[in-house]
Amino acid sequence: MPDSGIMLELCDFLKISVNELLSGEMIMAESYDKRAEENLLAMRREMEEKNRQMLRMEYWVALPAIPGGIVLVFVAAFAPMPAWLRALLIVFALVMIFTVAFMAVGIEQKAGYYACQSCGHRYVPTYWQTNLAPHAGRTRYMKCPACGKRTWQKKVLTKED
Ligand SMILES: [Zn+2]
Question: Where along the chain do its domains lie?
Answer without folding.
Answer: 112-161
